[in-house]
């Protein structure tokens, strides 16, 4: 039986420059068929057409993996698209394989050129079979896409002559063993948004507002003016004067240019995406702009929505929506940091801190399992997990604490949320190597304090504007994470029956060393909110009252959070843990800078990378690093689910088989409700203040096959499946 590996990688035999090639094969059928299947992959991104119809719905196929070792192929049932004479056409662009990023050494790890590999399998009614693989008998033509790149956008000329055929050549040196069946979720067009208004900016720019910062592209009707060129630029935000602002995209052009041939054409980019809320139109006459002719298409991985949260406070509700949009904007086959500037990389730290929220809101197991395979594949010989995955950066030094820990923490949340032990089995060796790497990089065993490369409490506010790494001692973070990741690793190892005694001994030693070094001496180099949060949340301190007091004092003294990527995800959880949910709510409700709601009051529709992305006076933080669609601080979402609404899954009976309800209502919210779709069915928790606000009505739904423990006002109740409603004179947290 033939497989895609029997086909050849092919590319155009003559240089097309930047023009996207279209590979072509004509196939005549002279017998009745039962089934036709197209297998397809590419070095780069491909788009396949059979008899002028798009094959499948996968945008940016074959997906993004560690291409040097793993390249996905897709399988499409095309039976219903087959005719007597069939024209198969497949366009291939550079994709993320080579993308104009400054880190160009990435090129060398696959092959320099983009290429196609495909095969059409035809099963005839009579029982025989044909396989038509890509090889030198295929032809190729220039497409009208004169240039296309992920970061820069696309240039299309509808007047361009695409009729001429060119020969193709085979690339025998590309290793076909890297081909694997698709593991991840397909990136698809998931929603369409209408344009809401046309603005003329103070500078006189014609700008359309879609009302939502998003990731995707615009589908638009090209005005029928032969030879005229139309340009659309993309931006996330307008500056304080109301002008179009693109400086934060850095070198990414994020622009589409289309030349009309005078015919009616609807255009959308094929191989590029942008992070944007606004588009600027150039080349259009004012009377050629009809808002109905512009639609924003939202693209992301086709995950099932599973988590919902609603409450009676508009700004918190908007914050929640922004968190969800942060995931939509950055779960494009790989969990990326941002979708707009010349970066868009699978930063491990960002994914790690957001994994819990993300896995509640959408069903992420397929998505993350694929990425975790790549992460393990990219892992260095010495056990270091790379800072980004797929590893485009190829830095000498990898393995930053809290970034590299993604291998453990993401695996943990996938298991706890969906209960599939396979993810633990798949990642066990990689997790173990990472723990051993930390163990090996300490001044003494039990400390992870000798590795020169740590990002620290990224973008925290305690070290001033310019110092991205924050004030918290990076070696303290290192050792804290050694303990934390190892503790999760031990729990997971036991689930699959591994002997974890070596790691238990290492864990005990790490906690001991941490205490000696950072607790008993009573000093760390810098006492910060994050250092106290880690000590408390990771159970590292034997003097929790002392750490708790210091944390509370610091917050009360300044009135706000100062934490960055490392401390923020645990800040509110920690306050709840030490019995100060009142203070957690205070931080959540705070509207002034710095806070979660400050961006919301500035009109944010996504999560910002920095607390001060836009300053109080409307000016922006440095354009060198200022994304308005970065999900890391959206990790507060899991506090909304687990503490405000109060739904969690017990690790020991994962996938919400044993539900933990621990809602901590707050009058200012009025009501809160969360629904989580689990394998067993819907889990619901809701509460609402009634009457004059002294009573709170609680309601819980537990699906068949699950049971629950409810913690309310210091009492504990056990429930089997069903729906329960109780009215309490709620004492409060
Ligand atoms: C990314 C971050 C990432 C960081 C590493 C930035 O450029 O956007 O989100 O985690 O680098 O420190």
Structure keywords:
Jelly Rolls; Glycosyltransferase; 4 domains; 13 helices; 28% strand; binds beta-D-glucopyranose
Brief characterization of the structure:
The chain is of the alpha+beta class. It folds into four domains: 4-143 and 159-178, Jelly Rolls, CATH 2.60.120; 188-301, Jelly Rolls (Sandwich), CATH 2.60.120.260; 307-645, Glycosyltransferase, CATH 1.50.10; 647-729, Maltose phosphorylase, domain 3, CATH 2.60.420.10. The protein contains 13 helices and 35 strands.
Separation of the first and last Cα atoms: 65 Å
What small ligands are held by the chains? beta-D-glucopyranose
User: How many independent structural domains?
Assistant: 4
Average pLDDT over all residues: 94
Question: What is the multimeric organization of the chains shown?
Answer: single chain
Overall geometry: globular
Query: Which structural class is indicated by helix and strand composition?
Result: alpha+beta
Helical fraction? 10-25%
CATH architecture of the largest domain: Alpha/alpha barrel
Radius of gyration over all CA atoms, rounded:
27 Å
Got a strand count? 35
How many strands, which pairing sense, and closed or not: the largest β-sheet?
10 strands, mixed
CATH topology (fold) name of the largest domain: Glycosyltransferase
Question: What would CATH call the class of the largest domain?
Answer: Mainly Alpha
DSSP summary: helix tally: 13
Residues in β-strands, percent? 25-35%
Uncertain stretches of 5 or more adjacent residues = 99-111
């Amino acid at each position: 039986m033939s497989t895609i590996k029997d086909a050849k990688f092919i590319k155009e035999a003559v240089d097309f420059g930047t023009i996207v090639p279209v590979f072509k094969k004509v196939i005549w059928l002279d017998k009745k068929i039962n089934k036709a299947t197209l297998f397809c992959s590419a070095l780069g991104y491909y788009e396949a057409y059979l008899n002028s119809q798009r094959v499948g719905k996968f945008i940016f196929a074959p997906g993004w993996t560690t291409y040097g070792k793993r390249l996905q192929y897709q399988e499409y049932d095309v039976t219903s698209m087959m005719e007597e004479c069939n024209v198969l056409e497949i366009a291939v662009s550079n994709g993320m394989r080579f993308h104009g990023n400054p880190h160009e050494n990435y090129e060398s790890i696959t092959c320099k050129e983009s290429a196609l590999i495909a095969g059409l399998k035809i099963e005839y009614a009579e029982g025989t079979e044909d396989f038509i693989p890509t090889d030198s008998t295929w032809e190729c033509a220039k497409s009208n896409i004169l240039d296309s790149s992920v970061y820069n956008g696309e240039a299309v000329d509808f007047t361009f002559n695409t009729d001429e055929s060119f020969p193709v050549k085979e690339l025998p040196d590309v290793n076909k063993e890297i081909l694997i069946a698709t593991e991840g979720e397909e990136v698809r067009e998931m929603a369409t948004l209408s344009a809401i208004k046309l603005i003329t900016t103070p500078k006189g720019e014609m700008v359309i507002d879609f009302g939502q910062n998003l990731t995707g592209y615009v589908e638009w009707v090209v005005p029928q003016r032969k030879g005229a060129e139309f340009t659309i630029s993309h931006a996330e935000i307008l500056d304080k004067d109301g002008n179009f602002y693109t400086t934060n995209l850095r070198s990414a052009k994020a622009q589409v240019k289309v030349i009309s041939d005078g015919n009616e054409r609807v255009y959308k980019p094929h191989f590029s995406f942008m992070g944007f809320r606004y588009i600027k139109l150039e080349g259009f006459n004012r009377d050629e702009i009809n808002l109905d002719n512009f639609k924003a298409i939202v693209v992301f991985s086709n995950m099932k929505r599973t988590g919902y949260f609603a409450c009676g406070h508009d700004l918190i509700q908007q914050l929640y929506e922004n968190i969800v949009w942060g995931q939509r904007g950055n779960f494009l086959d790989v969990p990326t940091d941002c979708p707009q500037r010349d970066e868009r990389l699978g930063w491990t730290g960002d994914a790690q801190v957001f994994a819990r929220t993300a896995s509640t809101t959408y069903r992420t197991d397929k998505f993350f399992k694929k990425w975790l395979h790549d992460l393990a594949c990219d892992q260095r010989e010495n056990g270091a997990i790379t800072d980004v995955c797929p590893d485009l950066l190829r830095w000498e030094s990898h393995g930053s604490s809290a970034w590299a820990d993604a291998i453990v923490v993401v695996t943990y949340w996938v298991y706890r949320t969906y209960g599939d032990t396979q993810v633990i089995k798949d990642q066990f060796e990689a997790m173990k190597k990472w723990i051993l790497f930390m163990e090996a990089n300490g001044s003494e065993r039990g400390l992870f304090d000798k590795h020169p490369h740590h990002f620290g409490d990224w973008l925290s506010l305690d070290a001033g504007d310019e110092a991205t790494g924050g004030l918290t001692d990076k070696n303290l973070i290192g050792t804290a994470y050694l303990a934390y990741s190892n503790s999760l690793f031990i729990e997971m190892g036991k689930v699959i029956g591994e002997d974890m005694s070596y790691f238990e001994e290492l864990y005990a030693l790490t906690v001991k060393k941490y205490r000696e070094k950072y607790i008993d001496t009573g000093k760390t180099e810098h006492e910060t909110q994050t250092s106290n949060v880690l000590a408390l949340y990771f159970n590292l301190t034997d003097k929790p009252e002392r750490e708790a007091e210091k944390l509370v004092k610091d917050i009360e003294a300044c009135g706000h959070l100062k934490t960055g990527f490392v401390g923020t995800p645990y800040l509110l959880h920690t306050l709840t843990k030490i019995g100060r949910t009142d203070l957690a709510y205070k931080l959540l409700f705070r509207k002034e800078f710095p806070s979660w709601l400050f961006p919301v009051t500035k009109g944010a529709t996504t999560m910002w990378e920095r607390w001060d992305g836009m300053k109080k006076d409307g000016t922006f933080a440095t354009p060198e690093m200022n994304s308005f669609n970065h999900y890391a601080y959206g990790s507060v979402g899991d506090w909304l689910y687990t503490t405000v609404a109060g739904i969690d899954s017990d690790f020991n009976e994962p996938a919400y088989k044993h539900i933990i309800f621990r809602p901590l209502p707050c009058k200012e919210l009025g009501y809160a409700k969360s629904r989580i779709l689990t394998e067993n069915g819907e889990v619901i928790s809701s509460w609402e203040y009634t009457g004059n606000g002294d009573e709170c009505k609680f309601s819980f739904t537990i699906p068949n096959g699950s049971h629950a423990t409810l913690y309310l006002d210091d009492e504990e109740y056990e429930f089997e499946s069903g729906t329960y409603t109780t009215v309490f004179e709620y004492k409060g947290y």
